[in-house]
Amino acid sequence: MKDNIVTVQHLSFTYKDTKHPAVNDVSFNIPKGSWTTLVGHNGSGKSTIARLLDGILLPDENSETLIQIDGITLNEKTMWDIRDKVGIVFQNPDNQFVGATVEDDVAFGLENRQVPRLKMQTIVHDVINQVGMLKFQKSEPQYLSGGQKQRVAIAGILAIGPKLIILDESTSMLDPAGKDKILALIRKVQKENGLTIFSITHDINEASQADQILVLNQGTLLASGSPIEIFKDESLIKSAGLELPLFYKVKNKLIKRGITVPQEIDNEKKLVNYLCQLNLKM
Amino acid sequence: MSKIIIGRYIPGDSIIYKMDPRGKIIATFLFIVIIFLANNWLSYLFLSVFTLLAVWATKLKPKVFWDGVKPLIWLILFTSVLQLFFTTGGKIYWHWGILNISEYGIQNSIFIFIRFVMIILISTVLTLTTTSLEIADGMEWILKPLGYLKVPVAQIALVMSIALRFVPILLDQAVRIMNAQRARGADFNSGGLIKRIHSIIPILIPLFIGSLTIAIDLATAMEARGYREGAKRTRYRVLKWSKYDWINLGYFTLLTLILLLTRTY
Questions:
Q1: What's the complex ipTM?
Q2: Contact at 8 Å (CB) between A155 and A126?
Q3: Which residues in A lie closer than 8 A to residue B231 (C-beta atoms)?
Q4: How large is the average pLDDT for residues B25-50?
Q5: CB–CB contact A120 B162 (8 Å)
Q6: How far is CA A68 from CA A54, A72, A74, A242, B149, in A?
Q7: Which pLDDT does position A91 carry in this prediction?
Q8: What is the pLDDT of residues A111-141, one digit of tens each?
């Protein structure tokens, strides 16, 4: 069995003053170094799970519940150790920018951990450089674009040296170009720092590039598996309020018509080439 | 729009910009105290020369200083005119009922006028060359002794710097809400006072809810980044005292001495 950085067992959470649990008996694992995507409707409990993993919300009491991150079991005592290992990039770029300038914001997490100033300066410079914002080091947030603010948020998280980054719909308020740039940046820092990514998203194209997809509906985990496994079942994706990517739609239709598509064809470009070749043979 | 409300800082790089906000705030307070030492023409002359030299040292256009004085010009003129008509003493040039123009009246009204303008100029030097964040940092340092009285100075300072940072965002939000309501036919610019107040309420409510959302989001983000209420923190941004600040304090100490020597006892 592969090393899991996150183990979640029988996790439930009910918001105060509500009857139905927002998260209902959910269990899953996240392999170390993987990119795992959580998809689901609005209000399916996705963001609640992110907050539960970081100890911002505490799960309903149940002796079987277990949240383990990098070998540490989450409880009220270990909450702050867990937060050294987990960083969250939230949805709204403005509402997570605490500092008055880019460098101040990046330093915020370090200040909280009482890192000496000299050490802070080196780290801040390093991580700002990593996200390509050195030119804006002294800028105030109102002069930055949404994508640039998300870069700063990523830098602030990298400064702490976490093992896991949770993206809580971090790109949903960005335009398509900005979205692609942020995702590319996250892939880059994932590689450079050996991170695990847990991404909560509506973007099916992003999900299709993940190692593992979790499908959540009304607080219950419907399925988990690789994109190829998950996208076989169109109704499953529809129940999560999403549309299949074009490639999988075409592929599923071809299979229905009795045309076999080989395993190694796993993206749009390869499928186009394959269909052209097929056409030539006919 | 945001520039107008959160201070009128203008970027620059003259000597005044190199000074520490703590020194600048202390000097400004000192100035407001020692200005009351001046009580004759010679002392007022020195006061004005020192102030104008400080204004000149900012290397900013005179117009920006005039913009600082302009909103208060009627108040200044009104106070000066009161002094002019109601002060008695010395030679009387004109008399009508309780009003009179006397030698002392003229002198006092000119002194009051100078005093007002100089205070505004010096505080304008402070606000034009210091960002609101620097002022907040400087105030935090000055208020530090309150920590011994269990006043959470560091927390107050964090709240202030966050509040400053969200002013432009809330202003943006207000403009957006107003535009949305204008698009649906709301009219903010006509009608009497009561009607105008009425039309403000539909702006305030969404703005208020919006700021609550921001506060909740921000609190979550801060907690996720390891912020613990009341816990000790280190500081990334620090203020640095340099030779320019000794020049600054020396300059105003010199002015204090000159005023003490030239004033009439």
A1: 0.86
A2: no
A3: 112
A4: 93
A5: no
A6: 11, 5, 6, 29, 43
A7: 93
A8: 999 999 999 999 999 999 999 999 999 988 8
Q: Which of A104, A114, A156 sits opposite B225 (nearest CB)?
A: A156
Partner-chain residue, chosen from A90, A103, A117, that has the shortest CB–CB distance to B235:
A117
Tokens of B88: 């008695």
Bridge-based pairing of strands A66-69 and A72-73 is antiparallel
Contact B208, B200 (CB under 8 A): no
Q: Nearest chain B Cα to A156, which residue?
A: B225
Query: CA A181, A183, A186, A192 torsion: positive or negative?
Result: negative
In this prediction, residue B167 has a pLDDT band, given cuts at 50, 70 and 90, of confident
Residues 132-171 on B with a CB inside 8 Å of A are 133, 161-162, 164-165, 168-169
| Cβ pairs A/B, distance under 8 A | 90
Distance from CA of B234 to the nearest CA of A (A): 5
Domain map of chain B by residue range?
15-130+241-262, 144-225
> φ and ψ at A255, to 5 degrees?
-65, -40
Tell whether A145 lies on the interface with B, counting CB pairs under 8 A: no
Q: What share of chain A in percent tops pLDDT 70?
A: 99
Token code pair at residue A182 = 């942020």
Distances (CA, A) of A258 to A126, A268, A282, B137: 54, 19, 15, 71
CA angle B90, B96, B99 (to 5 degrees): 60
The pLDDT value given to residue A206: 86
Using DSSP's 3-state secondary structure scheme, residue B229 falls into coil
- Continuous H helices in chain B: 2-5, 21-34, 41-57, 62-69, 73-86, 103-129, 132-143, 153-183, 193-224, 243-262
The mean pLDDT of chain A is 89
Residue A140 main-chain phi, psi, to 5 deg: -90, 150
| Closest chain A residue by Cα to residue B237 | A104
B221: nearest CB among A95, A113, A121: A95
Q: Which residue of B has its CA nearest to A124?
A: B236
Task: State how far residue A177 is from chain B, nearest Cα, in angstroms.
Answer: 24
**Statement: residue B99 has pLDDT above 50:** yes
pLDDT tens figures, A29-46? 999 999 999 998 888 888
Rounded CA-CA distance B262/B41 in Å is 9
Residue B5 or A248, more confident: A248
Q: What is the pLDDT confidence band of residue B165, given thresholds at 50, 70 and 90? A: confident
**Which residue, A148, A157, A147, is CA-closest to A193?**
A157
